Amino acid sequence: MKRFLHFVVLCRGRLARASRGPLGRENKTIPRARCPRNARARGPRHFLTGLSACIIAAFASLGCEPGGMGMMPGALEQEDQYTLLLTTLTGSDHVNLADLYLQRTKQYTQWQGLYVVNKDDSSALYWGRYRTAPEAMRNLQTAKQYVTPATGENIFRMATIVPLPGKDVGPPEWNLKNAQGEYTVLVAVFQDLPQQNYFGRKGRAVDLCKKLREQGQEAYFLHDVSRSGVTLGSFPAQAVQTQRVPKRHPQTGDTFYEDLRVVVDPKMKAILKANPEFLYCGNTEIRMEMDPQTGKMVRRVSPSVPMSIGEFKKGQMNIDAFHRSGNP
């Protein structure tokens, strides 16, 4: 996928260990905490460092520290929220193939609650509806270990716990899909991590959004197929401009120019400055990246990133794509 967002925030200098958030409260350094191992396929490590004061206060008011593991309690988890995604089928005949999978699985397993959801380009086979993700763990293990008697293949070895298809969580007026404006700032992402007993990503995002709004922030939540996010602000198209920025080649040292999207709106820059550390499942994210000046790999804190509301609404970019491509 072509990288979409390359932002240069003109106001951002060194990442401060303590700064002031939009509410004027001084940030405090948070002790490091254990976080999910192997939480991301790309391999960055996560730990807690200095966060925006407003986000720290929001996590504290939720009754947990950033990075806390386990299920998020509350009303959002009182009805069925999850299902098992057994397999996804693509191709021109995906609808008929999915129906065949459904009928054969019913025939061989006698599992109750199997169903198919068809889309334009794919079909997915699901099993059951569960109030909480831990309730689905037993059936998840059963699905992963199942071997079809017809071929002897472990066809559902990649099964996973996912939110119920089509089910949304949170007040519609806080949903980013209903926000006005073209740009916002992505400050946090949540993802269910069954291996680390970390669930409730939709509820976590909505609860964090709620607490930030109680502090006077213009916060929004967003959900896609596998992740939920929290953003701050809603800005017009003029908040970001395309500028030609000089770059230095890491091997030759030659100077070249690249067209980058640059944040110019003062309020948007203020949000980025007040929230310098991007949160993944409540933890600050550290990446190994090549320094363009030296060509060496260095550890860097992943910052909060601007994202296009319009691109997300159109389905042209998901949360993870904005997170990856938005980093400088």
Written overview of the protein:
The protein has 328 residues and is of the alpha+beta class. It has 2 domains: 7-76 and 168-326, no CATH class; 82-163, 2-Layer Sandwich (Alpha-Beta Plaits), CATH 3.30.70. The protein contains 7 helices and 15 strands. The chain has helices spanning 53-61, 94-109, 137-145, 201-214, 266-274, 309-313, 319-326; strands at 7-9, 45-47, 82-90, 114-118, 122-130, 160-163, 183-191, 219-223, 227-235, 240-248, 255-263, 279-280, 283-290, 297-301, 305-308. β12 and β13 form a beta hairpin.
What tags apply to this protein structure?
single chain, 328 residues, alpha+beta, Alpha-Beta Plaits, 2 domains, eight-stranded mixed sheet, four-stranded antiparallel sheet, 15 strands, globular
